[in-house]
Amino acid sequence: MKNYSGKRILVTGGAGFLGSHLCERLLNDKHEVLCIDNFYTGRRSNIAHLLTNPRFEVLRHDICFPLYVEVDEIYNLACPASPIHYQFDPVQTTKTSVHGAINMLGLAKRLKAKILQASTSEVYGDPTVHPQLETYWGNVNPVGLRACYDEGKRCAETLFFDYHRQHKLRIKVARIFNTFGPRMHPNDGRVVSNFIMQALRGDDITVYGDGSQTRSFCYVDDMIEGFLKLMESPDKFTGPVNLGNPTELSILRLAKKIIDITGAKSKIIFQPLPQDDPKQRQPDISLAKEKLNWKPRNNIEDGLKKTIAYFKDL
Ligand code: NAD
Ligand code: UDP
User: Which CATH superfamily is domain 8-180+219-245+283-297 in?
Assistant: First the structure.
């Protein structure tokens, strides 16, 4: 029997970077949270501070296998997100995206629960349309090194919409653009954590290619707010909806910003650009503004300062 006012909420990938912030926020909002994770890229330390909360529970489980629990809502975040991690075992990445989605959708169907999918700007691939709108179908290489992630996430979106049409499931699909903040894995190879760790150690900053490729970086607190607003939006709004910060930055400028803020003596070195690395990426967030009344509030400098403070403490 429930003896609290909140909902029972399942967060898959809850020990990861975004998942741990989401669990924390849901607990603060007085919900009961069941965190599922196989600890592939997630860490116990991300959720250690939540373990004493009686409304928090952790289960080691791989979403590629069926799960039988009772919840009111599901946030499906389980999947490695850094290119190094998702390319390490690409078959497992596709399984997590596709089998994992089927299992979580099956669970949502049985429970008649609302389910939110953490999709990605990677569904747009190396975009030929800029900035990216939800109506753009993308430019993805289906056989490249990034395909396990990009195509896995695209197939997951297909499954979400087919469950919605076929089984009337209440779905929410968020297309997440590059997000950063405390609790990113220091060695996960993503650009923000790489540059900050290199700057703090006084190592060379490794810019891939000539650094002219762009990304748009969103601070984690804004992203979590976006997830909650999307989950709470009327059932008829399914998305897909872009969530991200439209402030676009070249990777070279990001490197210089991090050097400035840390006061590091590091020099910038240039290394080969990985295969299929998207040249530009910027979300058009008009739909999120209109339907969710959401836009990011933190600027990149403030977010970087908080993230740098976290990495310094490690
Ligand atoms: P993360 O790697 O920190 O977290 C992913 C979590 O999922 C980890 O805790 C990992 O152990 C867990 N996991 C992986 N495979 C699993 C499986 N089969 N079963 C159970 N748990 C599993 O990554 P993140 O940045 O927190 O990303 C979370 C979600 O958001 C991912 O689905 C990712 O694709 C999506 N996303 C993130 C970003 C970003 O910039 N952070 C951008 C786009 C999309
Ligand atoms: N990148 C870089 N140096 C690094 C790590 C990444 O120049 O040490 C570049 C990478 O090539 C890409 C961008 O930074 O153009 C963002 O990479 P990340 O892996 O963070 O995420 P992506 O958006 O490519 O999935």
Answer: NAD(P)-binding Rossmann-like Domain (3.40.50.720)
Cα–Cα distance for residue pair 113/115, rounded to 1 Å: 6
| CA 200 / ligand 1 centre spacing (Å) | 25
Cβ proximity of 242 and 285 under 8 Å: yes
Res. 1 pLDDT band, cuts 50 70 90: very low
Instruction: Assess whether 149 carries a catalytic annotation.
Output: yes
List, for residues 255-307, the tens digit of each pLDDT value.
Answer: 999 999 999 999 999 999 999 999 999 999 999 999 999 999 999 999 999 99
Q: 17-28 and 220-232 are packed helices; what angle lies between their axes, rounded to 10 degrees?
A: 60
Q: Where are the domains of the chain?
A: 8-180+219-245+283-297
Annotate 8-32 with DSSP letters as a single string: EEEEETTTSHHHHHHHHHHHHTT-E
Would you say the CB of residue 217 lies under 6 angstroms from ligand 1?
no
Note the maximum CA span of the chain.
59
List all residues 6 or more positions away from 23 whose beta carbon is below 8 Å from its beta carbon.
11, 14, 33, 35, 47, 50, 56
CB of 37 within 6 A of ligand 1: the answer is yes
SS3 content of the chain, % helix, strand, coil (to 5): 40, 20, 40
Asked if residue 38 has its Cβ within 6 Å of ligand 1, the reply is yes
Question: What DSSP line would sit under 243-270, residue for residue?
Answer: ES---EEEHHHHHHHHHHHHT----EEE
Q: Give the tens place of pLDDT for each residue, 105-153.
A: 999 999 999 999 999 999 999 999 999 999 999 999 999 999 999 999 9
